[in-house]
Amino acid sequence: MRNSLIAVLSLSLLGFTSLASGQAEPIKIGLFGSETGGTATFGVSTKEGVMLALDQINGKGGVLGRQIQIISEDDQSKPEEAKTAAEKLINRDKVVALIGEVASSRSLAAAPVAQAAGIPMLSPSSTNPKVTQVGDCIFRACFIDPFQGSAMAKYAMNDLKLKKFAILYDVKNDYSVGLKQFFSEYVKANGGEIVTELGYSEGDNDFKAQLTRIRRANPEAIYAPGYYTEVGSICKQARQLGIAVPLMGGDGWDSEKTAEMGGDAINGCYFTNHYSPEDKAPAVQEFVSAYKAKYGGKTPDAMAILGYDAMRIMADAITRAGSADPKAIRNALATTKDFRAASAVITIDENRNAKKAIVVLKIENRVPHFVQSIAP
Ligand code: PHE
Prior knowledge:
The protein is an alpha/beta fold. The strands form three sheets. It has a seven-stranded mixed β-sheet, sandwiched between helices. The chain folds into two domains: 27-143 and 280-356, Response regulator (Rossmann fold, 3-Layer(aba) Sandwich), CATH 3.40.50.2300; 146-273, Response regulator (Rossmann fold, 3-Layer(aba) Sandwich). Helices cover 46% and strands 18% of the residues. Strand 11 and strand 12 (345-346) form a beta hairpin. The structure holds phenylalanine (PHE). Phenylalanine binds next to helix 12.
């Protein structure tokens, strides 16, 4: 009794001192992502981007005269852990907003928690359309997959003049299943053909059975909308089976690990992405140099720039809200308009998605190079 009284007293004294010295409480924002586990580069890159933006924002005095504090949770690349992370951040840490996740399946697991609590959640990079459909508290800083899937199909058909495609996708991954559908719809609607469509599961490492069937179907390209954890091996095994046609994918290919695992087998392949570090736009180049300076010369991937953008979009929303109240932040996020982010000028639309251009990259000598940008 006595101890707790003292604790309460000293706490309030502390509170008083910090108010008296003009030091307001920090604004707490939760960040959840895959810092370990299967797709660790997703969470690590995102956090690096977020922390770079945080340094800059706090370095300029924070927002509303307060510093921003990021409290982060590692969900180990597991959907159920993403849900738990969101619960912890909201209930235990009392964050006023959430940034996360990268993988659509994990955003889909966490979003109902944020929605039920009325805490705005901003996914930097989950592209499956279902994510923001969870409710009016769920936002994203990127384009969605109907656009991404059709953009790759459009490029393959119009620019590469291809018509016959096979698809090899991850059957339990919402992102992969969505892209398979959107790619195939575009192909069929535009006079092309899907000669075969086969699945695999995350963690598989032998794709020879599917690839043998694909070889028999004789496509002009293979669309493989999976994550970097499998696509490198898929490319390698395709080449081992004598399949020479290009493989194509989406943003899930974006990791230094794709080249590590795929080696030269990824040369000549294409994927769509949120940005290219080769983009000469000043906003992109400023970000690339700041990131390299902070992280030992490492080239930022798409998750890094989207994490950076998400943090800045959130800080901008809090500033415009004039308050760190979750509801006010939600309303301000919904009216984000012409925000000068690093990856693009971002407007959040009525479905809480960002309208942005997409880039097509071609891999040569194991490095993705910019070939085309497609407007939304
Ligand atoms: N868009 C992917 C998804 O929704 C995640 C991702 C984003 C992967 C950016 C790589 C780069 O699951």
